[in-house]
Structures are given as C-alpha cells and as structure tokens.
Amino acid sequence: MSNIDKHGLLGVQKHANQHRLSRLTMEVHTGELRIMASAVESYTDELIAALEAAEKRIAELQELRKADSAYREMLKRLYDECDTGERRGNGSQSGVAMPSWLTVEAARLLLGVK
Predict the structure, then answer these.
(1) What is the residue-wise DSSP string for 91-106?
(2) pLDDT at residue 60 is higher than 80
(3) Is residue 1 part of a domain?
(4) What is the pTM of this model?
(5) pLDDT above 90 for 20
(6) For 35-47, what is the mean pLDDT?
(7) N or C: fewer beta carbons within 10 Å in the chain?
(8) What's the number of domains the chain is made of?
C-alpha cells in the first residue's frame, strides 16, 4: 500500500542502528545522548505503528468503497427494472412497476435482509 518498507524498518537495519546507538551511548558519558537515542527509537516505533494503523484504515475504506459500489449497482438495477416495467405496463394497480423476483432476492442478499 505504501512505498515504505516496514520490514526493513523492523528488520536487520533497525537492529544494526540500535546496536550503533547502544555502542555510542556506552562510549559517550553524557545522559543527553542516551535520552536522544531512546527518543529516536521511540519515535521510530510510533511512526511504524501509525503507518500500520493508516494502512489498516485504508484497507477498511477500500472495502467500504467496494460495498458502496455494489449497493449503487443494485439500486440502479432495481430502478432500471421498475422503469422498464412501468413502460411495458407491468405495474400493479397503483401504477408502480415491480422488479423481478431474482433482482429482489439479489438485493436482499446484498443488504443482508432476511
């Protein structure tokens, strides 16, 4: 979904960088560098988590978009069948045409109506 390689961020490269940071913090006798290294690692973990959450949300939205497309197609199909039925004079006494049984059943399945 994204151009960012999460596995690269979480894999060998991350551990190599952590090792370098650990070595640096051992060699330098300042607490500031240790704090900075810890903050960098923490921010990286937060960014990776945010990226994963964003990708999950994108996938959810794409599924909703597919469902919306299916609903719109079914509504168009129902409308077209009713419109065609009205023009053929297949309407009920109220003058409203009914879609075919097959279309109604497909709509019920799509909408989850029992």
Answers:
(1) --TTS-----HHHHHH
(2) yes
(3) no
(4) 0.51
(5) no
(6) 81
(7) C
(8) 1
